[in-house]
């Protein structure tokens, strides 16, 4: 949120500097749009034969040009969605910005469900498949890990020592096990024993315990922490078995004994874990976490809309996609309530928005719901348009449900899970909710990975992609510099998601990320 | 804080169960005390020849017995400090509790400085020494590490990969270097760019950078995070050199390049780091962090007062001791303001107390300033007495100053640093403030360690000590079960602190703790 100003200003500079004349001058983000986005500065009078358009005004990079005439009062559409209304008649080829486009009454009109179109499902026989691991409870895994979870920071060192006993050599006899991973974190004590903070932490831990990508989970506590194992076990009705076990360091008799004990308990899980095999399953078993981090001025033009196209396709194939990062959609919640499947679902989102206003206010912060001067210079006319740059990841299908952080997500379809925008914290919640693949768009070049689910980096521009190619799974820059359509890029992302879900290694897995990015959302006083 | 009720109730049970008849029945916590504490239930009529006393009442375990007659209105002293006033005449051997002891007007009377006695320093030639490492700036180190710090969670994996390149084999040529340690954490972005949260994080990172126990520090950022390296460098006037360097992953060109780059930068620090040698330095160079975690009903009777005796001795030798954990002293701040060297110092503490009341209130929590029914059953008569169980670690010398979390502490003498009670968060602040040894009292058996400073575990009871002997550095149980005096136990702790500061390995170092316990205090909304 707070990055946006700098990003947009920078994007304009970058776009200005992009002098490769073979790149297309304008980009169409969605077939329904009546505006196009200038990929670089286009001067008045320029003919754009590829889109059958002649520019009547100078269009700065990142700004909008009318693809056809728009009458006064008519909706202006970008990303296939309303970003405002024409405040005067706009001719084809004119610059569209604050002088001829505004919010109108739209701002306070949530219009629950008015744009919730029925999903056009792909007929069952034509649906895509991938090679997944079907768990006994019917959930489908994309990876096969054993997790060593911690109730509290005080058990972090023991948990890491247990996991590190299972290096490649130790797992040689268990080729179907992807690894043993410890999930350390900084909280679990010095906090209230009940209330929002404890609720989120327990829900997150439980979500990981239940995640299909774990064949087994060992939960390690110290013994005297506020976040007691006994309460977690009781609350969620957990029982020790092949796939879940727990232990306390104080009961084990100290660090060394606890490590030995933990290693034995993990060893006992390995034979059953190794029996996991992949089989063809429908793409509807994908639960895709949508995330952006290290955004830049290209994010809203290339990677995010391309991911949105992939999400629309995934939803038509019966899959689930999870948009999050509530602060990033703030001020544009209307766009999601209009896509909500029901008033009830729309109201759930608005309840979260109100919660965030209170959360930031009581922490001496604010939610910003205006495009800044920097945003406007960069071509963003309304707050809807600004937030859509992030929300474009979510495509255009109807909003099926709204979930709290780390709540189990059933699917199918496009859903929203409340979370901060902060990457590790947001993705931790998405994985706790059941996401089995992550798509992460980045312009500056975020490096991260989130075991137990593979995370794909979708790069917004070719410059960053080339500089950090070992970290980036796919380059969405060609939408700008090779004229690849957003839909075509969406198809490439969809295919990559299926291959990755089938076991193909992502860049962040090759680099062994995911052991340090478990960051449960910490709310409340540290005491 | 919230542990106390359960702890005290449990302590009574444990004390009741303690049937070894050779143990002394009562314990004197301080020579100035006019009450003694029953180590186990003592029945009316029991003669206690070791203290020249006959019990007139039944004294439950953990409760107090009058060591001499106390007149109505006279102060009742435990830990050498006022815990209340006699509300009626009390005879020698009588039970002292709510029926004859209360707070009086003391409660709202901060009486700044009335008990601030001048420190009786040990004459210079007689002062203790240890083998320390004198840094070019005159600071004295107790260990010699290289630290790999992170601005944000997004650089955690790279930082850990850099540090893990320096295993024992890689450091063979640098025998004077204790190790290369990564300090990962969960925050650094998705937060306000200024204000309290960012202030604490930057202060903590800077405190670690300046810590004498690091021969060198490499700070690794991602590049686009809110907690920008450039701002840290500018704010604190840092310059690259032999002992400080920094880098960004996005500038390095991705994960693999960043790891290689980081490894080279650490390698460049090793030759100078290896030149560190130990030499005799005065004990005044000790900055001792005081901490308790996993407390039990014995904490206030054995380990905490024994540590307090060691602190009094350290202060007389010119050293510095840092009490923290503000919620643990809440309601007993009067005891510290009365010891304050000036009204100004006392007011600083009260300002922090008021801040905590606001902090917990705005996070829907409360500070509790009454001993609970469970506390009272366990023998704790007033809130002063309850909080003194924790504050006893700080001994009896005057309070020289009050610091914010992670603020640089100059010393000498007994000081207070504001922090939560939560162990890893509190100790992280103490080390950022400059603590070069940690003394950590525990009854339940906390396991932890805090690189770059050695951390000693002081166990409150022999049962836990025996069960977790590999984790516990010293057993304070003999105060109860062998009649070892609190002063004598304090001497043992003081000697152990000096040996540890000189390089003797603590239990937590032998177990290689300290790579996962860096937990900066996170305040404010995660966005
Ligand atoms: Ca994000
Ligand atoms: Ca691995
Ligand atoms: Ca503590
Ligand atoms: Ca002595
Ligand atoms: Ca080591």
From TrEMBL, chains A, B:
<keyword id="KW-0456">Lyase</keyword>
<dbReference type="InterPro" id="IPR013974">
    <property type="entry name" value="SAF"/>
</dbReference>
<dbReference type="Pfam" id="PF08666">
    <property type="entry name" value="SAF"/>
</dbReference>
<feature type="compositionally biased region" description="Low complexity">
    <location>
        <begin position="11"/>
        <end position="24"/>
    </location>
</feature>
<dbReference type="GO" id="GO:0016787">
    <property type="term" value="F:hydrolase activity"/>
</dbReference>
<dbReference type="InterPro" id="IPR044144">
    <property type="entry name" value="SAF_UxaA/GarD"/>
</dbReference>
<feature type="domain" description="SAF">
    <location>
        <begin position="33"/>
        <end position="102"/>
    </location>
</feature>
<dbReference type="Pfam" id="PF04295">
    <property type="entry name" value="GD_AH_second"/>
</dbReference>
<dbReference type="InterPro" id="IPR007392">
    <property type="entry name" value="GD_AH_second"/>
</dbReference>
<dbReference type="InterPro" id="IPR052172">
    <property type="entry name" value="UxaA_altronate/galactarate_dh"/>
</dbReference>
<feature type="region of interest" description="Disordered">
    <location>
        <begin position="1"/>
        <end position="24"/>
    </location>
</feature>
<keyword id="KW-0378">Hydrolase</keyword>
<comment type="similarity">
    <text>Belongs to the UxaA family.</text>
</comment>
<dbReference type="InterPro" id="IPR048332">
    <property type="entry name" value="GD_AH_C"/>
</dbReference>
<protein>
    <submittedName>
        <fullName>UxaA family hydrolase</fullName>
    </submittedName>
</protein>
<dbReference type="Pfam" id="PF20629">
    <property type="entry name" value="GD_AH_C"/>
</dbReference>
């Amino acid at each position: 949120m707070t990055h946006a100003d700098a990003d947009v200003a920078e994007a304009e500079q970058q776009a200005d500097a992009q002098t490769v004349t073979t790149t297309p001058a304008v980009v169409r983000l969605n077939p329904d749009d009546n505006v196009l986005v200038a990929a670089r500065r286009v001067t008045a009078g320029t003919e754009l034969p590829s889109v059958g358009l002649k520019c009547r005004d100078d269009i700065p990079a990142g700004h909008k040009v009318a693809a056809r005439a728009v009458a006064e009062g008519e909706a202006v559409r970008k990303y296939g969605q309303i970003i405002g209304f024409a405040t005067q008649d706009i001719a084809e080829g004119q610059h569209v910005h604050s002088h001829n486009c505004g919010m109108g009454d739209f701002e306070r009109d949530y219009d629950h469900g008015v744009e919730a179109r029925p999903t056009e499902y792909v007929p069952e026989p034509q649906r895509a498949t991938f090679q997944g691991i079907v768990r006994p409870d019917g959930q489908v895994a994309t990876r096969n890990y054993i997790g060593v979870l911690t109730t509290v920071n005080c058990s972090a060192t023991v948990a890491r020592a247990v996991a590190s006993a299972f290096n490649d050599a130790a797992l040689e006899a268990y080729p179907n096990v992807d690894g043993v991973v410890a999930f350390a974190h900084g909280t679990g004590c010095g906090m209230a024993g009940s209330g929002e903070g404890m609720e989120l932490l327990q829900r997150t831990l439980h979500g990981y315990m239940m995640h299909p990508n774990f064949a087994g989970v060992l939960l390690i506590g110290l013994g005297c922490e506020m976040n007691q194992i006994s309460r977690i076990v009781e609350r969620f009705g957990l029982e020790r078995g092949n796939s879940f076990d727990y232990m306390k360091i104080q009961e084990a008799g100290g660090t060394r004994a606890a490590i030995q004990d933990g290693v034995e308990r993990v060893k006992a899980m390995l034979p059953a874990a190794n029996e996991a095999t992949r089989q063809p399953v429908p793409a509807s078993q994908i639960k895709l976490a949508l995330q952006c981090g290290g955004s830049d001025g290209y994010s809203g033009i290339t990677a995010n809309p391309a991911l949105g196209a992939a999400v629309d396709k995934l939803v038509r194939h019966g899959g689930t996609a999870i948009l999050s990062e509530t602060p990033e959609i703030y001020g544009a919640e209307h766009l999601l309530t209009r896509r909500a499947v029901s008033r009830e679902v729309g109201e759930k989102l608005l309840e979260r928005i109100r919660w965030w206003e209170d959360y930031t206010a009581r922490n001496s912060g604010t939610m910003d719901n205006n495009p800044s001067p920097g945003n406007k210079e960069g071509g963003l006319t309304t707050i809807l348009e600004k937030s859509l740059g992030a929300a474009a990841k979510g495509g255009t299908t109807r909003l099926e449900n709204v979930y709290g952080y780390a709540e189990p997500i059933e699917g199918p379809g496009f859903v929203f899970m409340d979370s901060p925008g902060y990457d590790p914290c947001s993705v931790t919640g998405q994985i706790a909710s059941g996401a089995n693949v992550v798509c992460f768009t980045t312009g500056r070049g975020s490096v991260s990975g989130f075991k137990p689910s593979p995370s794909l980096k979708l790069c917004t521009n070719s410059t960053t992609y080339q500089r950090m190619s070992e970290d980036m799974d796919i380059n969405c820059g060609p939408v700008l510099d090779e004229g690849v359509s957003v839909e075509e890029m969406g198809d490439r992302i969809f295919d990559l998601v299926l291959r990755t879900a089938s076991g193909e290694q992502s860049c962040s897995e090759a680099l062994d990320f995911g052991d340090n990015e478990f960051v449960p959302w910490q709310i409340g006083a540290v005491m």
